[in-house]
Amino acid sequence: MRNVRLIIISTIFFIVAIIDSQAQHKVQQKIPEKTRILFLLDGSGSMLENWGRPHQTKMSMAKIILSQIIDSLKQNKNLELALRVYGHRSPREQNNCKDTQLEAPFKANNHQLIIDKINDIKPKGVTPITYSLEQAALDFPANPGYRNIVILITDGIESCGGDICATSRALQAKGIFLRPYIIGLGLRAEENLNCAGKFINADTPGKFHDILNDAIEKSFSKTTVSVELLDAQNQPRESNVNIMFINTTTNMTMYDFIHYRDAQGNPDTVQIDPVVDYDLIVSTIPQTVVRSVSIKTGSHNVIRIPVPQGNLRIEQEGRKNDALESIVRQKGEPGIIMVQKGNAAIRYLIGKYEVETLTFPRRKFQVEVQSNKTQVITLPPPGVVNVNTVSPGYGSLYEMKSDGSWEWVTHLNDLKSQFTLNLLPGTYKIVFRVKNTTGSKYSAYKIFQLKSGETKLVKVFG
């Protein structure tokens, strides 16, 4: 029998270990191993302009450089390529704003096909970038496990009236592709295209080669970050709060995890996608937001964020009241940042706060949270008042303030003639009128005092 129990216990521990192991694997957030790159190439008539060298056009140089780079990518087994061209089928006079074509769809080992299609391009028409980008969204297969990237190569801005910025942001928000690279061939239009992606201008063919090669390399470079959460002494000793990496373009969460420090106090290293620009949100109370975090692609980055914190606990003397709730605001700010439960020590950023307890009556406190200290607000225990009004009616409860004035606390139950109130100790007044009376002159009032822990019967008409 003893052996049977040992087997059962061992089995339980084994199952728990498996479940725990599976849970750890589930929460890992990884970048997909495979990548798709769609080259969206300008084939409009302006690509026939001379560029860089005598008797060389923008298109002829783009063909040479793009073909060389595509050929160099043949060895990357985790990469699939596709080619879409616009402005190359209809002459400019036709103003065809739907002149775009997927010339080579995503497929393994299609490098030579793409090179052949590039060499066949004959520039003719206009520049429907927005419509081409909308159609490009349909070029990416729906199967998961890939990062989708667009590299737009153009020598002109939108000529068909589309809003490329809004379209790009919408498609990024839907997760169709990450922030596009936009390479301008002798084009200075950052204000027109930078809102649609990362715009880089190539003044010369040599710069175009370097920029295109760099964009592809950055797409695959391993980029990691560690987030150090600093205390009041500027030391990375804060931890155990949620951190979100937010795509600055789409405002969508890219990575979401609870901060961790190992036994030596070192934070986790997290791999992130280098194609995206990020804002960071640290879920302290209140939140800490860092805009446009500087990330060096292909390197390990240490992000240091000051989040010095202390504790605040709200309790009632002599009793554990988990039902006690309090509203917490930053001093001078109207917005509620926390509804805090009783007896819990909650961490806040250091600073001044206003606390309003949801008791009868409410109490307000000014408190300053200090680094690694616990500020305690202690309320006296309530008393219990059993109210008898003879018959249901209308009334209110008031509390006497220190200057002798009366402050409204709550309306009374108009459906019952007997009810109970839990009140903090103090001096109170009930003003009441029975429903079936015929005038306000029949209103009655009763003044009473209540101590902590006391139970009192109040007869309004007694």
Query: CATH topology of the largest domain, anyone?
Result: Rossmann fold
Whole-number tally of structural domains = 4
Q: Are there runs of 5+ residues with pLDDT below 50, and where?
A: 6-28
Q: Provide the CATH architecture of the largest domain.
A: 3-Layer(aba) Sandwich
Overall 3D geometry?
elongated
Average pLDDT confidence is: 90
Strand order of the largest sheet: 5-4-1-6-7-8
Characterize the largest beta sheet: strand count, sense, and whether it forms a barrel: 6 strands, mixed
Share of β-strand residues:
35-45%
**Which secondary-structure class do the elements indicate?**
alpha/beta
Within CATH, the superfamily of the largest domain carries the name: von Willebrand factor, type A domain
* Rg measurement, Å: 34 Å
Count of individual beta strands: 29
Distance between the termini: 73 Å
* Total helical elements: 7
Description:
With 462 residues, the protein is an alpha/beta fold. The chain folds into 4 domains: 187 residues, von Willebrand factor, type A domain (Rossmann fold), CATH 3.40.50; 85 residues, Sandwich (Immunoglobulin-like); 71 residues, Sandwich (Immunoglobulin-like); 77 residues, Immunoglobulin-like. The chain is 19% helix and 39% strand. The strands form 8 sheets. It has a 6-stranded mixed beta sheet with strand order 5-4-1-6-7-8, sandwiched between helices. Strands 11-10-13-14 form a 4-stranded antiparallel beta sheet, with no helix packed on it. A 4-stranded antiparallel beta sheet has the order 18-17-20-21, with no helix packed on it. Helix 2 runs antiparallel to helix 3 and helix 2 packs parallel to helix 7. The longest helix has 25 residues. It is elongated. The chain starts with a helix and ends with a strand. 30% of the residues are buried.
